[in-house]
Write a structure and sequence with these properties.
Shape: globular
CATH architecture: Alpha-Beta Barrel
CATH class: Alpha Beta
Radius of gyration: 16 Å
Order of helices and strands: EHEHEHEHEEHEHEHEH
Number of strands: 9
Number of domains: 1
Mean pLDDT: 97
Amino acid sequence: MSRPLIAILRGLTPPEAPAIARALIEAGVTRIEVPLNSPDPIDSIRLIAREFGQDATIGAGTVLNVDQVAAVADAGGRMVLSPNCDADVIRATRQAGMDSFPGVMTPSEAFVALNAGASGLKLFPGELIGPVGLRAMRAILPQGTECWAVGGVSADNMAEWRKAGAAGFGIGSSMYKPGDTPGIVAEKARRMVAAWDEVAA
């Protein structure tokens, strides 16, 4: 069963990438993001996509321009996440056949993103928007718009976000921090999977 959880592996290095990805997938997390401000991120994406591309959706975060979109596509990525809303990045991502999750914080940004073809909206920073902000935005967004909360999501507040209408979550340090072993990552991932299964039941 695929769950709407994106593991954000900020700080991941290529040598550890396959083992960390395997730990996540075996724990039930099948969406993996390597932010481009990590060490040699394209190498990590390529390694993970080559080994696990049939089992998981691999992509990049902190994607800020169309050249980076092309590099992610060339590495085998299938999704692009950004901290901002850039219509050129969104269009380039979709034209490359990848899913696009631009960062939005306001209704204006949300509609710019949707008009450019975004697959879903990344609510970022989630701590500032909060479930209350999401609930207000959902009242005016087109029905069926996927809103993913990113930033400050934990097992403790997942239910509140879900009630407000979050379709899924991008999870960083609660899933992976630099230096975490595959075993630690697997344990964290299982905890987040269990939390999702509980709120989605």
